[in-house]
Amino acid sequence: MSSATDFEFDPRLKLQEQTCFPLYAVSRLFTKAYQPLLAPLGLTYSQYLVMLVLWEHKEIAVKDLGQQLLLDTGTLTPLLKLLEKRELISRHRDPRDERSVLIRLLPAGAALYEPARQVPAQLAQLLQSRDESLVDLRPALNHLINILR
């Protein structure tokens, strides 16, 4: 009689053989590394991502924001409510399409732009690397994102 734990282990299932694990670990550690850099701005990492898009576009539909951030509405809505409560953004219906909600950058959100400009350099310094080494990773990671979409 064999037990439920009596099997030959497949070496392809070793943690160190998984591509997903280092990506998961790096993602969590990156988010953790950003925390002290974003604390003076009063932003979480997720809120920072939203603000990055808004600093670039000033106004964007929630649907388009979700597509850019790879977040569904259920995840995005509470995040946007917190930013709206802090008066960094506003949400309103698109007058051209009542089904669409637009997010607009408010003056308090725009005021965070200048201090936020220091964050990428601070992160590079924290990682003790040149910006180019991080930039070199981006194409491969973006390629993987496109495959998985």
From TrEMBL:
Keywords: Cytoplasm, DNA-binding, Transcription, Transcription regulation. Pfam families: Staph_reg_Sar_Rot (PF22381). Residues 16-149 form the HTH marR-type domain. InterPro entries: HTH_MarR-typ, MarR/SlyA-like, Transc_reg_Sar_Rot_HTH. The keyword Mitochondrion does not apply. PANTHER family: ORGANIC HYDROPEROXIDE RESISTANCE TRANSCRIPTIONAL REGULATOR, TRANSCRIPTIONAL REGULATOR, MARR FAMILY. This is MarR family transcriptional regulator. It comes from Hymenobacter profundi.
